[in-house]
Sequence to fold (356 residues):
Amino acid sequence: MVPGLSSAVLAYHAVKTAGVVINLVAFPTLRPGGVPSTRTSVLVPARDEADRLHRTLPGLLAQPAEEILVLDDGSRDGTAAIVTSFADREPRLRLLTGTPPPAGWTGKSWACHQLAAAATGDLLVFCDADVTLRPGALAAVEQQITAQRADVFSVFPRQETRTLGERLLVPLVDETLLGFLPHPLLAAPVPAAAAANGQLLAFRRTAYHRLGGHAAVAGALVEDLALARRTRAQGLRLGLALGGELVTARMYPGYPAAVAGFGKSLRAAHGGSAALLMAGAAARLAVYCLPWLYWRHRAWRWAILLGLAERLLVNAKCGRRAYLEAALVPVGAAAALPVYLVALRRTARWKGRDYS
Fold:
């Protein structure tokens, strides 16, 4: 055993647990109330999303947006037909037909760029096709934008996890956010304190143009994080909230899809460095698996207890409950190894497109 390793692991869990405890109080959750006062465009990039749009479009149409634009990004299923069938009954909904992304652009950033060019609202709300908005969601978003004086604002939806594989991987998004980004840092002069979730990302129009829009992050596989970092770097105000009951999503339908989805983004989140990626995998195994192997020692037992507490507190804060998921903590790090292996590849394939 490496000398001091148990102390390092325990310190990691102590810092992370402290972050979660701070965010139990400080991290906002969307609440119903208020009436939108800003002309709002809801913008949905869609590629092969027929199954999801059939379920999520009613929630989008229930929002008091001035317009709802869905861009069909070269779909090979019935995406366009689904949108058209809803648009025939709702004049605010409009289907746009996208063009293939130019060299150097990811598909999603190019789709969002086209949507922004067509939008007329003063508040641009980019919303993924897998996101379900419940009545009052858009008003709650605007309410939090005002309360946080945000130029750019992102919501982390309450994630629906229906299979064991999803429960192993998807909750790690909330755990990382709430453990390592205390919400008060967003108001402090700490540019590195930045995060965003592209599932729901809103911009005041003036801020969007000042940032350079999605053209400024055209080739970024993790465009939401890149935009968040750009927001902080340019001195604009970034706001974040949890979706609560109002904004929910099922990010990936099962373990293979979760591995592919997280794998395409993980390397970019590590600065493109394979060395950092491998170090991250080793560190995750150390902090979550080793304590269970050496549980007879006091420091490791404390690490076990803190690791379980983190998951329980995060689930409580997000409203997911599912407290029995804490039993998956010891195997979660091992289950994430295929994600790291996908991220180590030179190219990532997503929705029929290859990215370096």
